[in-house]
Amino acid sequence: MKKALIISGITIIVLFTAIALAISPIAEYFIEKNSKDLVGRKISMENLSVNIFSGSLKIDDFTLYESDETTSFVSFKFLDVNVNILGLLANKLEIEHILLSEANVRVIQDGDYFNFNDIIDFFSSDSTETETVEDENPLAIIINDIHLEHSYLSYQDKEVGSEWNLKDISIIIPGIDLSDLQADMGLKLDFTNGGQLATKIKYDTDKALYDLELHIKNFHLSPILPYLQQSLLVDNLEGIFSSNLSIKGSTEHIMELDVNGNILISDFNVFDAQNQAIATFDSIYTEIKHVDLNKNLVELNSLHINGLSSHFEFFKDGSDNFTKLFKEEENQSIDSSQATAESKDDTYFLNIKDLKIVNANFNYIDNTLPQQFNYDISNICLDATNFSLDKTNNVNITALLQKTGKLKIKWIGSIEDISNQNITVTLNNLDLKPFTPYSLSMFGNPITDGHISIQSQNIITNNNLIGTNKINMYNPKIGEKDKSVQSEYNIPLKMGIYILTDKNGKVDLDLPISGNIDSPDFSYGKIILKTLGNLLVKVAASPFNALKNGSENIEEIYFSATATEFTDEEYSQFAKLGNILREKPELKLQLTQNLLYTNAITEYCLTELKKNMAIQDSSNSINEYNANDLLVKEKYLSIPTKSPELTAFANKLMSEKGLSINNKQTNEEKAVLIYSNEMKSIIEKDMNWRNSLIQNYLTNQCSIADSSLIMSSYLIETDTVKKFKDNYKVEWRFE
Questions:
Q1: CA-CA distance, 187 to 337, in Å (whole number)?
Q2: Helices and strands (H and E) in the chain: how many
Q3: CA distances from 689 to 491, 564, 654 (A)
Q4: 20 to 30 Å CA-CA from 21: which of 38, 161, 480, 543?
Q5: Closest of 220, 252, 254, 250 to residue 237, by C-alpha
């Protein structure tokens, strides 16, 4: 009996050993033969080794194929798993180590389809709903010493044309003890396109808390391009990304996390469809102090931007190079109720302890003007301490404008409170010529020369603006009006600037402005232009104040049509005009003699009537030869107009001329009837004589060039306002 038991025991051991030794090739053959029934895909392997005594599993050269049964989906060179068999007796599954070497995973996405969808469908079709029974003594699971080494992951998104390749992936996880719900994991890998990733993570599955250290070095951004091209018309993307971040948070509350560390992006370039650079920079570095997405809070110890370069181009159709980047969506309309429901009035908090932008460059191009405006702003530097969105900031900006003008801006204010601001702008030695396109558009004149300096401060208090603009120009030159351009403002720019320019080539202007910025009609630019325009119009109309020749505004010089000479006062006024012409020789003075015919003809005819009566009076010595002498003329002009003698003489002449006599007619009316035909030519002759007298005075005595004078006469037939006075109208031209 005892011998039989021994033989039986030996036999069982031999059979069990034989089964244990035979299970590996049997399992390998079975899996390969029935892989499609097991997983729905073809499987191949070089060697499968299972040791049920030691709890080890080893597989060499494993491949799980794509559905075409030729292309590899998942493969690995070697898998080594070891399980503590004795632990199963204590209701504990303890994996002592897992080693996976040279794994190669190929994932392909095409829209919603992945190249492993059929595997998911395969297992989903065989699943049945079963009642879940809670195990009073759950199996404890412990996984120790997990190693993934020298592996490769390929991800391809066919829809967007993007491909990501991660090479030499190395993952080291010291252990996962699901019994006390703690995990400590690490990851190391290289990107095929350049760069490395390394992580360390501690995860408490009981509290759903994680502590992640994320280190990325020299990651190339080019694979992101296809995703940008989903919505943007961009042609190329370059750049290198590095970061060292510590992220703590909860998987149950994704927005509740704490981020700190640093991020560096260098050698960044993005190009549009025309292969023009949209934005480039040498580097952006930020040191993150704290990020709380739940509170919309971002705190940065520093943000430094170096070598930023961009350009803005404005087109005649109202678009610009940035709006043209966005692809047109077929369905852009959004239900208003949905938009309202989805909108959220969040307040964001951004604090940057040290904000710096250095060596930035910006190019502005405006194609909406009569000529293209192409302007470079270089060497832009911005410096701010404790910059914030919701608090008062103190920001200093400097820049170089078109390589000549130096710009300084000091801004004190809050981005979220534009109703209270303090902005100071200082501009030195700015070349005016490049602004010709705007000058043509607004005034119709090109700028041919000149430099400008500006000191401007604008203080806004409770939406009320009070500002001052001190403008100094040197040698400004304005060209002739371009008649092919329809300018926005009809302002005598050339003449006004010329008059304001002193003998040293300088122009000093002070343009105070004020207004309520909350008004829908408020426009800072329009206020400046209106103020400047009003000034130029006044200066062009009356150069006296601008040239400090007195406060008198000479627009008209009055005279007597029957006087034989100008008075001293009248000559004095003409002399002041001459002073302006000497100081501004490029100006032209236009004097238009305006004479009311009805008044002049009456005075001339009445004078002629009195003169002829005096000549025919034999009791005096007046004759045709001395009638125009001063003393003689005073004598007969003193004859009363209503005297009976003058009436009788007028009636006699009317009878001789065959004119009907009306006793209701005045002597003035009778004189006009008698002499009007011959006196009109005399009036015109005297008007020409008067012009000649003034021209001789200005050219000979005031030393004014004859070409600077434009003389003309205008005989006005009727007086509509009944207050007209004979005058010389003064006008200035600058041609």
A1: 46
A2: 15, 30
A3: 35, 10, 31
A4: 38
A5: 220
Contact 332, 302 (CB under 8 A): no
Mapping DSSP to helix (H, G, I), strand (E, B) and coil, where does residue 619 land? Answer: coil
Q: How far apart are CA 189 and CA 700, in angstroms?
A: 96
What would the two tokens of residue 404 be? 């000549």
Partners of 470 in beta bridges: 455, 510
| Mean pLDDT of all residues in 172-178 | 62
Handedness of CA 535, 539, 544, 548 (dihedral sign): positive
CA distance 407 to 454: 9
**Percent residues over pLDDT 70 in the chain:** 85
CA 651, 653, 656, 660 dihedral sign is negative
Q: How far apart are CA 461 and CA 459, in angstroms?
A: 6
Poorest-confidence range of 153-157, 430-434, 609-613, 731-735? 153-157
First to last CA, the chain: 140
Q: What is the average per-residue pLDDT within 453-465?
A: 93
Rounded mean pLDDT, 378-402 = 94
410: left (phi over 0), alpha (psi -120 to 50) or beta: beta
pTM of the model: 0.70
Asked if 182 and 205 touch (Cβ cutoff 8 Å), the reply is: yes
Share of the chain above pLDDT 90, in %: 39
Single-letter amino acid, residue 530: K
* pLDDT: which is higher, 492 or 395: 395
CA Rg value for the chain: 50
Q: What's the CA gap between 281 and 240, in Å, rounded? A: 11
Nearest C-alpha neighbor of 501 from the set 478, 522, 474: 474
Interior/surface letters 400-431, b for 16+ CB within 10 angstroms, e for the rest: bbeeebebebebebeeeeeeebebebebbebb
- Considering Cα of 338, then 340, then 345, then 350, what sign does the dihedral take? positive
Backbone angles phi, psi at 505, to 5 degrees: 80, 20
Instruction: Report in angstroms the alpha-carbon separations of 512 from 456, 491, 507.
Output: 9, 19, 16
Q: CA-CA distance, 222 to 193, in Å (whole number)?
A: 8
Q: Which tops the pLDDT comparison, 37 or 290?
A: 290
Tally of CA atoms within 13 A in the half-sphere of 290 that contains its CB: 10
**Local structure of residue 701 (DSSP, 8 states):** I
DSSP secondary structure of 467-509: EEEEEEEEEEEE----TTS--S----HHHHHHHH--TTSEEEE
| Cα separation, 645 vs 638, whole angstroms | 13
Q: How far is CA 682 from CA 316, 444, 482, 628, 718, in A?
A: 61, 45, 44, 14, 19
Helices (H), 593-702: 597-616, 630-637, 644-656, 667-696
Distance CA(628)–CA(636), nearest Å, equals: 10
pLDDT at 178 over 60: no
Range with the largest mean pLDDT of 4-13, 174-183, 380-389: 380-389
| pLDDT level of residue 451 (50, 70, 90 thresholds) | very high
Tokens of residue 213, six digits: 């250290």
The residue type at 576: K
Rounded mean pLDDT of the chain?
Answer: 83
DSSP 167: E
| Cβ within 8 Å of residue 404, ≥6 positions away | 429, 430, 431, 451
Q: In the prediction, which pLDDT does 343 show?
A: 45
Pull the structure tokens for residue 128. Answer: 């049945």
Q: What are phi and psi of 547, to 5 degrees?
A: -95, 0
Structure tokens at 200: 């360390």
Write out the two tokens for 224. Answer: 């992101």
Alpha carbon distance 120, 124 (integer Å)? 6
Rounded-to-integer distance, Cα 29 and Cα 45, Å: 10
SS3 215: strand
